[in-house]
Amino acid sequence: MSLAPSSARARVEAATQGARDWVDRQDSGSLPGVAIDAWRRYNAVDGPLQSALLALYVLVAVVPALLVIEEYLDSNPSALAHHMARHYSLSAPTASLIQSVLVHDRTHELGSALIAVAGALFFGLGFGRVLQLVHVRAWRVSLPSRLGDQGRYAVVLLGLYGLILLLLVQLTELSGGPSWARFALTPGWIALLVVYFAWTARVLTHDLISWRDLLPGAALTATGLVLLMWVSRFVMEFWVNFYARDYGGLGVVMAIFFWIALSSAVIVWAASLAPALAQRRSLR
After folding, report:
1. d(CA 77, CA 103)
2. pLDDT tens digits for 39-69?
3. What's the pTM?
4. I want to staple 266 with a disulfide (CB 3.0 to 4.6 A). Which of 16, 178, 224, 242 is the partner?
């Protein structure tokens, strides 16, 4: 009887060792080798933790800024909620849940603006810091310690705010228009996001990585984010209702945070894959 567990353990150890040997034999220039290298870099980055931190910084620093910008772009306090309801084709009950979370009294515009500024100062710079850490660990480069990095974090955050402003202006201008108009702008948004994420990585790594090496990862990031945005049009209502059924308004926040976390995971995954792709290209 005692031989059975030992035999099973021996087979498991043999299979594990065989898998390790197979991994070690993979050429870095092959597709399996690229996938293995990307996974190792993702582990070195501590991908799940960095994705969670990135999502948290977006929630506490970027989302309040989005609400404040929308306040000053549109006099209707429920404009953003209406934009979301139209974009995601939400039913009336689900749209009402979204409004209960996003719509607030306009008499507190100054207070919400101050909260957004405080969030940007205390948490927003962490957005750039996390991105820098991800790229540095994924590319395995060493950066000099400089106080000027705080300025780099601020510039990256301002760039993100600029993208948000452009998106809100687009939503305002296309409000009530045909859906094909938004679809026609998708390639432009992909190109814009490619430039932003490649520029962000280059700024945060002190120009140690070439544009050529950064562009594939930036393209993957941009394509993944835009794809998520379109996929969310078909599943967001179900997802919001799934959480709101048990948690009410808090469930709406949880559902939104889920999509922010998923987008953050795309950013970290693409950043981990980019150096593996660059190494494959150099070997070939």
Report:
1. 6
2. 889 999 999 999 999 999 988 888 777 777 7
3. 0.80
4. 224
Q: Which two tokens stand for residue 35?
A: 């996938």
Question: Closest by alpha carbon to 202, among 123, 132, 269, 115?
Answer: 132
What is the token pair recorded at 20?
Answer: 């390790």
By CB atoms closer than 10 A (0-12, 13-18, 19+), residue 47 is buried
For the chain, the average pLDDT equals 79
| Cβ atoms within 10 Å, residue 138 | 28
Domain boundaries, the chain: 47-279
CA 247, 251, 254, 259 dihedral sign is: positive
Cα 187 to chain centroid distance, Å, stands at: 18
Q: How many residues does the chain have?
A: 284
Q: Which residue has the higher pLDDT, 10 or 161?
A: 161
Task: Of 64, 56, 98, give the one whose Cα is nearest residue 248.
Answer: 98
Rounded Cα gap, residues 274 and 261, in angstroms: 20
pLDDT digits (tens, 9 = 90+) for 222-248: 999 999 888 887 777 777 777 777 777
Q: Spell out the residues 6+ positions from residue 95 whose beta carbon is closer than 8 angstroms to its own.
A: 81, 82, 84, 85
Considering only residues 154 and 235, tell me which one the structure prediction assigns the higher pLDDT. 154
